[in-house]
Amino acid sequence: MKRTIDELAIFGGSPAFKEELHGFRPNIGNREHFYDRLNDILDRRWLTNNGIYVQEFEKSVADMVGVKHCIATCNATVALEIAIRAIGLSGEVIIPSFTHIATAHALWWQQIVPVFCDIDPLTHNIDPQKVEQMITPRTTGIIGVHLYGRGCDVDALTEIAHHHNLKLLFDAAHAFGCTKQTQMIGRFGNAEVFSFHATKFLNTFEGGAVMTNDDDLGKKIRLMKNYGFSGYDNVIYIGTNGKMNEVSAAMGLTNLESLKETIQYQYGNYKQYQQELEGIPGLSLIDYPEDERNNYWYIILEVDDQATNVNRDELIEILHAEHILARRYFYPGCHRMEPYRSFFPHAGLLLPNTERVAKRVMSLPTGSMIEKGEITKICQILRLVVENGSEISHKMRDRNGQEDSVETHST
Ligand code: T4K
Questions:
Q1: SS3 state at 233
Q2: By the 8 A CB rule, do 362 and 316 touch?
Q3: pTM of the model
Q4: pLDDT tens across 349-398, in order?
Q5: Measured from the CA of 325, which atom of ligand 1 is nearest?
Q6: Is the Cβ–Cβ distance between 318 and 195 less than 8 Å?
Q7: 279 alpha carbon to ligand 1 midpoint, in Å?
Q8: Residue 23: what pLDDT?
Q9: Complete DSSP assignment for 327-363
Q10: Nearest CA to ligand 1 atom 12
Q11: Contact at 8 Å (CB) between 309 and 389?
């Protein structure tokens, strides 16, 4: 355990972890079950194109969520692109800027303008009151994002969509296994999209799915993910190759078997972080309402640098030096990334909460690979740093100043 700031790796001490502690080590279920499925896939020589494992995976997910149609895809970005097209979005679509760039790119990729909306500073989810202000005659829809698996204000967004005759889609990339109040996420809007990427709570290596209760839409999306083929030689829509393969589905089915244990483990990590960080001034964990189900996959720390005296970026630098790979999800906000930054250079003026939150949050390492003792070590470092915030911050700024001047002299 480090007791003084001179022991911190940033000031020359040895790193707290020999190897880098990654944030999102994939959850991997029972290997024997996975190998059995893999062998079966190889024996049967059916690797993709709506194989039996994809069909079983789709049925399992649909049953679990309680939705009529689950259309598995190769990833969530393509699932979003297909859903956006199938629903008929065009012109402008309102989305939060505080999300992964995939939400915005899925629109722009098909010449639809993402109109960035501010977030609620408490939940970090899109603020429905601000949505109303962003509607123009060109607006055709809204994409809500259930950030960190915490459901956004579905009721308010549904009402706005109804009132203005807009389509409503949800990016539920983080929210598999979560509820909004008592309802499983995946059931809302015209459609919802899950991600099953390796770094997600439930993974299929790469993968995603569109969920919908609309029979016609479900049918259309199913055709669109297979180039629009309806029968061997008949294409009836524009389409793409968005198919999930059999190995991915086998991984998904295997991981579904241990979903309960995975959530329990995650919940344990979250509770441990919560307890061990308690009372550290200026550090607060995003909490998940106890009356809603969450997968607890994201441990999000908010840093109030007025109280900690070190800012979020300095904290990240300190943690990285200790080989703790905390991440700034989702800094700096989509509006500050290309091509949006160039097209809408002043978008930030309407996004004060996004700008502020994006500078304050970080995601801490978790997952089934992390041990209790490792979480304790991370929390001890955070406590040591905050207890000595001013001194550390001065030391880092002096050091950075010196490095700058060395660079200036040598150029
Ligand atoms: N919408 C939202 C709101 C999203 O967050 C995302 C994706 C999407 C849509 C699009 O979904 P997909 O099309 O990807 O299905 C990662 C993921 O690639 C991305 O899926 C995810 N969100 C985003 C939040 O995180 P990166 O670029 O930050 O990942 P990377 O490679 O830096 O990995 C993160 C950590 O996980 C590292 O510490 C390494 C570790 N890791 C990663 C992989 C891939 C492992 O330990 N093993 C692995 O196999 O984007």
A1: coil
A2: yes
A3: 0.96
A4: 999 999 999 999 999 999 888 999 999 999 999 999 999 999 999 999 88
A5: 38
A6: no
A7: 31
A8: 86
A9: B-TTTT-GGGSTTHHHH-TTGGGG-HHHHHHHTTEEE
A10: 76
A11: yes
